[in-house]
Amino acid sequence: MSWRNVRLLLRKELLEVVRDRRSVFLMLVLPMLLYPLLLIVAANLAEYQVRKVEDGKVLVGVTITPGIDPFLSRLQESERLQPLPMLPHQAVDVLRSGQVDVAVVFSSDLDQALRDETTSPVQVLFDETNEISLLAAKRVEDALDSWWEDLVEKRLEHRRLHRDFIHPFHVEKESIATPRQVGGHLLGQAVPLLIVLMIVLGAFYPAVEVTAGEKERGTLQTLLTAPLMSIEIVTGKFLAVFVVAAVTAGANILSIVLVVALGSMLPEQASEILDLQQPLSAIGLLGLLALVAGLLFSSVMMTVAVLARSTREAQTYLTPVYLLCVLPVVFVQMPGVELSGGLVLVPVINLALLMRDVLEGPVSAHDVFVVVVATLMYTGCALVAAASIFRREAIMLGDVGIGGLFTRVHAREQSHVPRLGEAFALVTLIFLLYFYVGSMLQVRFGVAGIVLSQWGLLLLPALLILRWKGLSLARSFAWNAPKVRHFVGGVLLGCSLWYPLMLAARWIMAGDVAPGPSASEDLLGDLVSDTPVWQLLAVLALTPAICEELLFRGVFLSSLRDRMRPIHAALLCGFLFGAFHLSLVGFVPKTILGIVLSLMVLQCGSVWPAIAFHAIHNGISLLIVRYSVSLPGIVDDAAPVLWQLALACAACVLGVILLARRPTGDSSS
Question: pTM value?
Fold first, then answer.
């Protein structure tokens, strides 16, 4: 893929988008106007409504019964309560018709009950959908409570009892939420929804313009005849849509900052109980999540819009997509919904929950890592789907529209390994299966669950899909026999490279960003201490080495080998390998490990040296933890022993030398 072509396409698409004044207005002007106007209008309306309700006089319907004179006196003493007589059977009708704001119905035996010092029922009717009625009910309750207090005082005095007789304890209620937390909670309920709405809206029109719009103008056909790869066209158009969504997200974040700065415009009573100020770290993290959301929504919008034959048809297709992007954010507003369990991988919901948590208070760095990684993987899947659609001439050049998805495509070019899009989609599918199904298997069945999840959820789906596609298993998995020197080099690296990698992991865990152990890590710790050694090595060392290497350094790396430079392929494969494990602490060491293993397979042309490396690396790490081997710098904070580090580095150098030069006649296939 040529990035020069991608940049040219990006520039072309952005120029066309900027020419559309409607898009510029939605990107920049609307967000900058919307939030301050919402704050000012809401603050003034709230202040006006509060004054109207508090200063206005409410009408209280009262059934006239002997004995209620003290209650009527209390109502008449208040300038905001005006009693109106009514009959008991009229209470509901006069309240519904708006003749009164609240109705009080006394029992006909009230006077007798007061003389006998017994209890008489009192019914207060109000309309909970009417703010004035709610306030009137509260004021009537205060008047009834005052009368109740006087009656209780008289009864206690008559019986010569102390007031403490009816008060065995005193309840004091106090909220521990600070004004900052109250303000964060208020922002967390509204801001994620507004950001998602504006980003989706910002990506909506550019996605239509760069796909269906070009089809209508006839310029897309010209572009498809140019010497450009489909992935280059998709990437250029996607980046154009994303830039627009990113600018929209930036305008939204900036507008939110302005709203926070205008917090002094809130009514005085509101400013005393809530603080809208947010730290710079929260604003920055919110911006990051908004950009990630822009990536996801841009890819989804463009993938759907490219199926349309005209801009009107594209808008029809994207309207339900718009709703599907917004409805999950509404779900987040429900009480009790937290960013935990499977929700961390549910698209859009995880982003909205994390945005809410960022505004309400500190968040876990691990949660941020998992949500960002999962969203990027979903974005990649959408782009893979878009690239697949761009290869269908019936959709891009014909007049079939979405029906082209169900027509035959041209025979694929002769290839024995999966395409990049197919491999990425396979890894994403396995990622979801492993997280949702594999985690349950491991928690429920322990060692057996790990075996089932590795062989049944990592390797078996890859094997079945390769067979279904009719691809070569040997070339896709790269499991041809290696040269002896390559295998020995892999063994040497496996025996030595674990040491610097564990030092790196130890350094990362010592930082403030390291989260506490997860449930899976606790389970792994129990297995390491309780499982027999041979099972431990077979299940946690050899099994992951075989299954993970055949998936990542086999299927995925084989799809990259002829499409990227070796170093770029190794970097991408290593990054995906590190992200796959969803561990913030282990991300850097596992990414480095994945890069080294990828370079090894590209150099050797076989996955077996990488399997040997991986198995030995895992086995040594497990045995160190199992037997609590004292290694300075790993099990404690002391500096590593120089001769141990030098020995490990020497073995690493020897392993690299054995792998560095491919013998004459060796094949990289």
Answer: 0.68
Q: Is the four-CA dihedral 443, 447, 449, 450 of positive or negative sign?
A: positive
**pLDDT tens, position by position, 373-417:** 888 888 888 888 777 777 665 556 555 555 555 454 444 445 688
- Residues in the chain, pLDDT under 50: 264-265, 406, 408-413, 511-519, 663-669
| CA distance linking residue 283 with residue 263, whole number of Å | 16
CA atoms within 13 A on the CB side of 323: 5
The CATH number, out of the four listed (3.40.50.970, 3.40.1710.10, 3.40.50.1010, 3.40.50.720), of the domain defined by the range 56-166: 3.40.1710.10
Q: How far apart are the first and last CA of the chain?
A: 21
> What count of Cα atoms within 13 Å lies in the side-chain half-sphere of residue 123?
10
Distances (CA, A) of 140 to 52, 90, 209: 18, 18, 61
Residue indicated by tokens 């991608």 = 6
Cα–Cα distance between 222 and 362 in angstroms, integer? 51
What is 250-305 written as a DSSP string? HHHHHHHHHHHHGGGGS-HHHHHH------HHHHHHHHHHHHHHHHHHHHHHHHHH
Q: What residue type is 188 in one-letter code?
A: G
- DSSP per-residue codes, 190-231: HHHHHHHHHHHHHHHHHHHIIIIIHHHHTHHHHHHHSS--HH
* Largest CA-CA distance found in the chain, in angstroms, rounded: 114
Residue 133's alpha-carbon distances to 42, 63, 99, 137, in angstroms, are: 22, 18, 11, 6
Residues 6 or more apart in contact with residue 496 via CB below 8 angstroms: 647, 648, 649, 650, 651, 652, 655
Residue 248 neighbours by CB under 8 Å, 6+ apart: 26, 27, 28, 31, 198, 199, 201, 202, 203, 294
The two three-digit tokens of residue 481, written as one number? 């026999």
- Residue 549: both structure tokens together: 């290497």
DSSP state of 490: H
CA distance 421 to 556: 10
Q: In whole angstroms, give the CA distance from residue 63 to residue 86.
A: 5
**Residue 431: which of 453, 410, 398, 413 has the closest Cα?**
453
Q: How many Cα atoms are found within 13 Å in the side-chain-facing hemisphere of 403?
A: 4
Q: Where are the domains of the chain?
A: 3-43+178-407, 56-166, 442-660
Encode pLDDT of 168-196 as tens digits: 777 776 666 666 666 667 777 777 887 88
